[in-house]
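Please decode residue identities from the backbone states below.
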């Protein structure tokens, strides 16, 4: 089994999310394929840690799970240098899909579809992994013990070095900024009482898990 150092989830400074980073997920929702990274943010008040109970958002009738690989960014870090390391974990990007669909039709921002209590769930631990080992990563989502998502790092439209380079042209990346890097195909609805578990794998071996229950 691959061995990596485990570290606690740091105190998050900013949350960045990448939309439409897997072709199959783009197709399942009938979206347009982006030619550059599609970035959105969530407020820190959306963060919940593994093991939390997530309140079903009162303004939505279609809460969707999105399991994702998550990375911790460092201020002034050059992820293209030799022997560069990064902290990798996993998380859940909850989305009020009915609200998002309506906002997309109107051409309005996604805030109410993405920003609500518990909509960004983070693993309590991360692994320290070399950047050149990222192609060995995969993510899985399990709902009530049934596997619903499986996505390989190598299938991302925009890998981490491209994402961080693009992001750094727009904002100053801060210490312990967190980057959710997109969900693979297989997203779907959850209801109160459902248990969601997302797993980060290296060479098909589980390294990190994040779990929550919708209430």
């Amino acid at each position: 089994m691959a061995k990596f150092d485990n570290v606690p989830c740091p105190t998050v400074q900013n949350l960045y999310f990448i939309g439409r980073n897997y072709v199959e997920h783009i197709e399942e929702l009938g979206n347009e394929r982006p030619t550059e990274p599609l970035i959105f943010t969530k407020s820190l008040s959306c963060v919940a840690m593994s093991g939390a109970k997530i309140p079903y958002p009162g303004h939505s009738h279609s809460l969707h799970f999105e399991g994702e690989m998550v990375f911790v960014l460092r201020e002034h870090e050059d992820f293209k240098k030799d022997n560069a390391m990064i902290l990798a974990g996993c998380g859940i990007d909850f989305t009020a899909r009915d609200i998002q669909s309506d906002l997309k039709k109107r051409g309005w921002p996604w805030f109410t579809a993405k920003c609500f209590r518990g909509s960004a769930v983070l693993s309590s631990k991360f692994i320290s992994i070399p950047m050149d080992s990222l192609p060995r990563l995969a993510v899985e989502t399990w709902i009530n013990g049934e596997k619903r998502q499986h996505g390989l790092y190598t299938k991302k439209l925009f890998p981490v070095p491209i994402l961080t380079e693009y992001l750094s042209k727009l904002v100053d990346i801060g210490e312990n900024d967190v980057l959710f890097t997109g969900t693979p195909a297989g997203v779907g609805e959850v209801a109160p009482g459902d248990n969601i578990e997302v797993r980060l794998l290296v060479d098909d071996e589980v390294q990190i898990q994040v779990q929550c229950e919708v209430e």
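Observation: The helical segments are 23-28, 97-106, 111-114, 160-168.
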